[in-house]
């Protein structure tokens, strides 16, 4: 205000701060004093710390003359509401806040009340609180992965818009005060505005819960970050509550994920890992359904049609034990996560599993016919042959269900490969030497392996055909083969990619080897920053982010 100096505003703000709280804002205000001795002669007799509801601190102070007064600092709109002459001060305060916001500064209002008199607005303190360096990249990566990011802050709208612009969010920032009654159902118009907003300013804790509730009613899966006690209800309400580093015990207890390091970039890693887990769950469900159909159909039809039990009870037990030992390793398999949110497609899962589950008995009956009618094996030895066939063919099915493309399109994890080879070595030894069954011999065991491998290759082709029928998602030739397609839709993009001087790759992504060629790609930027880039495509597939965004350009960092 005109009759108040900057030093007096800083002193009042410092008196309304406490270093013992280790609050970043309090420490910043105390650091604004010219000298620490400026506080000498003042005694704070009562201090009310900041809380998200009142959004201000307040201190009762006695000076060296014995005069008692109160000081308060907090959100400018809150401090304005505290003073009597709000209408008089508001234009000047708004101008100062907007001016600071345009230069990237947050604002704090400071007020003072002498004795029992009314509060008097002293001035506005600017605070430089820049976003974390990784914030813009984190948000860009989240958007590229199909995650809509909304900022929720207690700051004024001008500051919120400035911050949103810096981190790559839009500037459609809503004032939370205009959201309506948080305990009532929102109108369609307000709900749509919440859904399309880039962020919310001047937010109170109850608004966070309300925003999440509205978004969930609109059919969205909502995640939220928070750190305070007042964030706990919203963290619990969210589909995925995330307590940030340094969060209170209440926030940690309500959250589904607790971050142990500062920053939000680790959330991207969580999204990637969750999508990898989903892919593994999808593979497991498909395999389990297909294998169950294979065994049940073959055994049941063999009993009904030929009055013959193709496997004994002990064989079924050993099949189950060896299968369980191998499929546990699916949890560690190499998979490619998608650049869009995952959702269960049970029609596709059941369709592919059914196709493989029907092809399996056909192959088994083919071997049964050869052993019984062509090779004239005895029934006990034929049972051993069918046991080995069901075991080997079943485990080979794991390699078919784990990829949408050909089974070799994604290299299996070493642990999966070792688990399958190990369990099948045991199954083969059991069949060859006749543990709990009639010995089969090495010759017939080799024949069963060759027969099963042949059918596995044929089944992989049938699987690809089933995918084209059940999920005919249009893809360019480049996307199918992991190389960019040319503008005319031809596959000449492979040649262009090989000679593209902007293309580079890294050796840090063996699970999903890709190359990048877009200057704005968040993955490419991270690789460049860490100096892990190597020129060329190295015959890798095109990065999904680069393929779906602007024309390839060289990344210069």
Describe this structure in words.
This protein is α/β, with parallel strands linked by helices and about 550 residues long. The chain has 4 domains: about 5-125, Calcium-transporting ATPase, cytoplasmic domain N, CATH 3.40.1110.10; about 135-265, Rossmann fold, CATH 3.40.50; about 275-470, Calcium-transporting ATPase, transmembrane domain (Up-down Bundle), CATH 1.20.1110; about 475-545, no CATH class. The chain is about 50% helix and about 10% strand. The chain is built from 20 helices and 15 strands. It has helices at about 5-15, 25-30, 75-80, 85-100, 135-145, 155-165, 190-195, 205-215, 230-235, 250-255, 265-305, 315-325, 345-375, 380-400, 415-435, 440-470, 475-480, 495-500, 520-530, 545, and strands at about 45-50, 55-60, 70-75, 105-115, 120-125, 150, 175, 200, 225, 240-245, 255-260, 505, 515, 535, 540. The strands form 4 sheets. A 5-stranded antiparallel β-sheet has the order 1-2-3-4-5, sandwiched between helices. A hairpin with a 7-residue loop joins β1 and β2 (about 55-60). α12 (about 315-325) runs antiparallel to α15 and α13 runs antiparallel to α14 (about 380-400). The longest helix has about 40 residues, at about 265-305. It starts with 5 loop residues before the first helix and ends in a 10-residue tail after the last helix.
Helix-strand blueprint:
Elements: H1 6-15, H2 24-31, E1 43-48, E2 56-62, E3 68-74, H3 76-82, H4 86-102, E4 106-114, E5 120-127, H5 135-144, E6 151-152, H6 157-166, E7 173-175, H7 188-196, E8 199-201, H8 205-217, E9 223-226, H9 232-237, E10 240-243, H10 249-254, E11 257-258, H11 265-306, H12 313-327, H13 346-374, H14 379-401, H15 414-433, H16 442-470, H17 477-481, H18 493-498, E12 504-506, E13 514-516, H19 522-529, E14 533-535, E15 541-542, H20 544-547
Parallel strand pairs: 6-8, 7-8, 9-10, 10-11, 13-15
Antiparallel strand pairs: 1-2, 2-3, 3-4, 4-5, 12-13, 12-14
Helix pairs in contact: 1-2, 3-4, 4-6, 5-19, 11-13, 11-14, 12-14, 12-15, 13-14, 13-16, 14-15, 14-16
């Amino acid at each position: 205000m005109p009759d108040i100096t900057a030093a007096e505003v800083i002193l009042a703000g410092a008196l309304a701060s406490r270093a013992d709280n280790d609050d970043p804002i309090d420490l910043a205000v105390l650091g604004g004093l010219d000298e620490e001795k400026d506080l000498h002669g003042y005694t704070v007799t009562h201090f009310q710390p900041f809380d998200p509801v009142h959004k201000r601190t307040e201190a009762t102070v006695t000076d060296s003359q014995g005069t008692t007064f109160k000081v308060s600092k907090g959100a400018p709109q809150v401090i304005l509401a505290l003073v009597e002459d709000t209408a008089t001060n508001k234009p000047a305060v708004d101008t100062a806040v907007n001016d600071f916001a345009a230069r990237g500064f947050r604002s704090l209002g400071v007020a003072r009340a002498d004795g029992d008199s009314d509060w008097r607005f002293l001035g506005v303190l600017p605070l430089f609180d820049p976003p974390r360096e990784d914030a813009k990249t984190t948000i860009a990566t989240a958007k590229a992965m199909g995650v809509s990011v909304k900022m929720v802050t207690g700051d004024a709208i001008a500051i919120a818009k400035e911050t949103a612009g810096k981190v790559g969010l839009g500037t459609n920032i809503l004032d939370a005060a205009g959201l309506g009654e948080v305990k009532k159902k929102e109108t369609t118009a307000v709900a749509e505005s919440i859904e399309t907003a880039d962020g919310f300013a001047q937010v109170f804790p109850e608004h966070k819960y309300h925003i999440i509730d509205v978004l969930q009613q609109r059919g969205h899966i909502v995640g939220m970050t928070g750190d305070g006690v007042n964030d706990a209800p919203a963290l619990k309400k969210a589909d995925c509550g995330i307590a940030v580093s340094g969060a209170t015990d209440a926030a940690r207890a309500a959250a589904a994920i607790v971050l142990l390091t500062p920053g939000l970039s680790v959330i991207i890693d969580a999204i990637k890992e969750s999508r990898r887990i989903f892919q593994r769950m999808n593979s497991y469900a498909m395999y389990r359904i297909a294998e169950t159909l294979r065994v049940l159909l073959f055994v049941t039809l063999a009993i009904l049609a030929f009055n013959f039990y193709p496997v004994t009870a002990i064989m079924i037990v050993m099949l189950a034990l060896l299968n369980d030992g191998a499929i546990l390793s699916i949890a560690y398999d190499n998979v490619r996560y998608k650049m869009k949110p995952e959702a269960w497609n049970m029609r596709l899962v059941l369709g592919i599993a059914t196709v493989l589950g029907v092809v399996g008995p056909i192959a088994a009956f083919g071997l049964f016919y050869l052993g019984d009618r062509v090779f004239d094996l005895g029934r006990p030895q034929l049972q051993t042959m069918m046991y080995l066939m069901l075991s080997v063919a079943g485990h080979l099915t794991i390699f078919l269900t784990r990829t949408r493309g050909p089974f070799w399109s994604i290299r299996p994890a070493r642990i999966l490969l070792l688990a399958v080879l190990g369990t099948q070595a045991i199954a083969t030894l059991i069949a060859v030497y006749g543990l709990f069954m009639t010995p089969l011999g090495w010759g017939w065991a080799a024949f069963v392996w060759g027969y099963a491998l042949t059918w596995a290759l044929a089944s992989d082709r049938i699987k690809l055909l089933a995918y084209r029928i059940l999920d005919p998602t249009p893809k360019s030739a480049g996307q199918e083969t992991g190389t960019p397609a040319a503008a005319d839709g031809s596959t000449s993009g492979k040649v262009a990619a090989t000679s593209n001087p902007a293309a580079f790759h890294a050796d840090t992504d063996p699970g999903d080897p890709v190359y990048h060629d877009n200057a704005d790609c968040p993955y490419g930027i991270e690789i460049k920053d860490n100096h892990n880039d190597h020129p060329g495509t190295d015959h890798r597939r095109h990065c999904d982010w680069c393929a779906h965004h602007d024309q390839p350009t060289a990344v210069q960092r």
